[in-house]
Amino acid sequence: MLQASQTAPFVEFDRVQKSYDGQTLVVKDLNLSIPRGEFLTMLGPSGSGKTTTLMMLAGFETATHGEIRLGGRNINDVPPHKRGIGMVFQNYALFPHMSVAENLAFPLEVRKMDKAERDAKVRRALDMVQMGQFANRRPAQLSGGQQQRIALARALVFEPELVLMDEPLGALDKQLREHMQFEIKHLHDRLGITVVYVTHDQTEALTMSDRVAVFNDGIVQQLAPPDELYEAPVNSFVAQFIGENNTLEGIVTALDREKCVVRLDSGDEIDAKPVNVSRVGDRTRVSIRPERVEFNKARLRPDAHTLRARVEEFIYMGDMFRTRLSVAGNDEFVIKSRNAPDQVRLQPGQEIEIGWLPEDCRALDAA
Amino acid sequence: MADATISGGMPAGREARPVASGPVLAADGTPLKASLARSLRRQKARALLLIAPLLLFILATFVLPIGDMLFRSVENRIVGDTLPRTVAALREDTAPVPGEPAFVALYEDLVVAEEYKRHTQLGTRLNYEWGGASSLFRGTGRAVARFGTDVYTDQFQDADPAFEDGAQWAAWMADEAVRAALPETADAYDAWAQFTTEVGNDDPAEEEPGDMVYAALHRDLSAGAQPPGLPAVDVTGFETVSIKELLIEEDDAWGEPEIWNVLRLYAPAYTPGYYLNAVDLQKDLDGVSVRPENDRIYVTLFVRTMIMSLVITGTCILLGYPIAYLLASLPMRTANLLMILVLLPFWTSLLVRTSAWKVLLQQQGVINDILVWAGVVSDANRLVMINNQTGTIIAMTHILLPFMILPLYSVMKGIPPSFVRAAKSLGANDWTAFWRVYFPQSVPGIGAGSILVFILSIGYYITPELVGGTKGVFISNRIAYHISTSLNWGLAAALGTILLAVVLLLYWVYDRLVGIDNVKLGG
């Protein structure tokens, strides 16, 4: 992937804006470049502009302002059927009056491909998604997962370089969804196509993508690889949206490049890594991942700030223990610990002290 | 039950459920099916109770009238009921113009029918088959009461005064031996006694019997009967009259074979005659033949009704499809507003709408005026758009259009926009995406709309009547004519039944071609 990202951008959004009613912008000043071969996911809550962005790329919506380029060419005025972009829809959009094979042959037929070549390609595409024996079925005779595979095969059969997927796994149950995530990912790796994937499921985004663009309010909040997104969110929206997250609010009392001290509203002081704070006196919201909180004093640095906490609830989750604490006035503070042989099971009502490494605690905007 | 558990449409990879060998038993050992039926009984009874009022209503206002109509189209008891003796006599006598016995039977039947005033009804009925029957029966009925058969009455009464005595006659006719000896007399006397009691409200024992009884007595005695207890009368010297001659003298038609053919053909209680008539055929003694050219109207009318209904259905599709498409693709608010416009005609009286078309389409009407004013047509060549087929097609398309738009709209509403988008993303241009993807999915709506419009228009009456003139009327107008003007209900029923059969046949054909499962009234 490293090599691919070094080449010239394949898809480019240049200062793109979109408004439906002339009063509010659904997409505000979008600048995004996607290198060839990348799996990019647009993640965000509903109404954040991610689907609109996808539809503009597919050609079903026109950009109010700005330029969308595909392979260096401006495609603003190219109609959808001439863009050569494969697309997988949320409800598969398999044509119900055609058999599976006819569905797959459709894009080849409209490209006036001769029958023998068409049949060979359809067979190859069906085999690719392990659906070879279903060629003569109607879509209605297939299960959700099977329909999903056919939709995928249909979007790939005419060998587009770019494939768009609009929440393609939304209608599947959890187990099937996880299985399909891997299949899509493997297909992407094998075919070397560029994929732009839209979802509101952050787990899906993290497992599948090379890079994730987190959308909110028509703006890309952060564009980063999954690990960076999770571990180094640049603002509190991203921190909240990706994964589970504990927040504490307070004021910055000391600040240098590597570290700052935050006095919480309860009066306690904690160490944090400054991300979105610029000077002493700023109000901030600090964010700590539940699995990075430590309550075993022996594992903390001797000079680390600690907070007193009371155990409110202990939940056994099999591989993990999830403990809800009351910390500095916040009784929704959650810690997670691995179910290891030596792990302590905390009891409700128990008083403990918790702490963390300063770099795991990020001082973000107060939002 | 066992073989119902494996369905063909099950996706491969999923195992078929194992099939139980014996009947499945409930916990208490009774067969599960019986248990289930018992537990559902209350529910079924409730459901039945809920639909009972509608069921009774439909039964009384729909099923029974249709049954009655089907029956009327073949029912023909009036001939056998009014002329029972004639029908019996004609069974024996197959000559084109039968002999004396058939005329005697006709004479007696007509005397009875005249008393009951039934001969005119029969005349009307037979007039449908043979023009002239109506006046023939009316005239003959009037004449039979004063026929020359009183010669027998006078001669018998001259021979013995006992023949004048009503009470004596009643006594004779109560005697089984006399009745056995004088069968024709007994039959004639019974008929006379019956109408004397029922129509005249008199006691037959106090009345002198009618002439036909004496005529029958003369026939019995001439045949050599020797009734016990009656005064011995030698009838060989009696002056006689031929009833056949009397009837032919009254109306020459009785001497011609036509009326007798008609009587023979329509004697049975059930007849295909109305149906033959309804398809321009007629029955004659050799079988079935085509009616004379100038009598044929119904086949033309049926064909015209079919073709015009198809044309109306076609124009409704052409006009309705784009509107339904627009409605289905517009945002809800605008679509609802437009839908009100579509439904507006429903809130206007049918007569008002049809009359409006008269105003618009007539030669001195709005459209012609505008065309003349615009110079498209000259004043001398104003278009004829009403009182012909054009008028019927225009007005009926307008009236039936909502029945096409509504099912189309609801089907189109159910087609997600993602289908067309998918087609376009796969490389199809606007037309291909529409024709290959959108249109096939809207076919069920076209089917539903077409069935509605076609069936409605095939039986339409008011609009063709008002704007159709002579060339634009439908079979239904003819049915209405027979129901309310000519009063030939049997023919109306036969025409109606044929129409019903044609609709059912087309429905069946449609089911075979398109599949009734493919008809959707809702999305």
UniProtKB/TrEMBL annotation, chain A:
Matches recorded under PANTHER family: SPERMIDINE/PUTRESCINE IMPORT ATP-BINDING PROTEIN POTA, SPERMIDINE_PUTRESCINE IMPORT ATP-BINDING PROTEIN POTA
Alphabetical keyword list: ATP-binding, Cell membrane, Membrane, Nucleotide-binding, Translocase, Transport
This protein's encoding gene: potA
MF (Gene Ontology): ABC-type polyamine transporter activity; ATP binding; ATP hydrolysis activity
Top-level EC class as recorded in UniProt: translocase
Span of domain ABC transporter: 11-242
Pfam families listed in its UniProt record: ABC_tran (PF00005), TOBE_2 (PF08402)
Family the entry assigns: Belongs to the ABC transporter superfamily. Spermidine/putrescine importer (TC 3.A.1.11.1) family.
Protein's job: Part of the ABC transporter complex PotABCD involved in spermidine/putrescine import. Responsible for energy coupling to the transport system.
Catalytic activity: ATP + H2O + polyamine-[polyamine-binding protein]Side 1 = ADP + phosphate + polyamineSide 2 + [polyamine-binding protein]Side 1
Organism: Rubellimicrobium roseum
Assembly: The complex is composed of two ATP-binding proteins (PotA), two transmembrane proteins (PotB and PotC) and a solute-binding protein (PotD).
Coiled-coil annotated spans: none
The organism's place on the tree of life at top rank: Bacteria
EC number: 7.6.2.11
SMART domains xrefs: AAA (SM00382)
Cellular component GO terms, alphabetical: ATP-binding cassette (ABC) transporter complex
InterPro entries, per database record: AAA+_ATPase, ABC_SmlMolc_Importer, ABC_transporter-like_ATP-bd, ABC_transporter-like_CS, Mo/tungstate-bd_C_term_dom, P-loop_NTPase, PotA-like, Transp-assoc_OB_typ2
PROSITE patterns listed in its UniProt record: ABC_TRANSPORTER_1, ABC_TRANSPORTER_2
Designated name of the protein: Spermidine/putrescine import ATP-binding protein PotA
